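Feature request, filed as a ticket because there's no other form

It would be nice if the structure record came with a short human-readable summary line next to the tokens. Right now we just get the raw output. Example of a typical job, pasted below so the devs can see what we mean:
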Amino acid sequence: MSPADLTRLSAKAQASARRRANHNLHEELADPIQRLAIAMEPDTLVRPHRHPHTWELLYPLAGRFLVLHFNDAGEVIARQILGEDAAVLETPAGVWHAVLSLDPGGVIFEVKHGPYMPIAEQDFASWGPLDGGSKVADLLAWYKRAQLDERWAG
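Raw output as currently delivered:
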């Protein structure tokens, strides 16, 4: 992807109701390795979730991203800022995690095993709010300040 492609993808995210957009580099959803660029704005909700079947590799293409890992009780067990603390980060299969864009125009590159499967309801943390709703802004603010061993009390 060129810098112009990243800019176009960011503009698409900014115009989206979900405040994110992706560009798949894999040819089809059945591909065994999923590779995609995801543009997301700082007010994008990425609900805490897990992928039981695959690891997930993240690399920032533009901007910085906060990645939080949680234990089963919802306590923060790891906190990294991609583009600052780390250049690349792998989340192991089955680990609860969330991502927050820290900068407008942020684009992150994601690689994981395919085929594409939507996240099943049981793989979203029960303590995380759904898309929309008044608790979303509170959760995003908490992501920014969350430290090790803390838990969302929303």
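Something like this underneath would help us a lot:
The chain has a mean pLDDT of 94.
DSSP finds two helices and eight strands in the chain.
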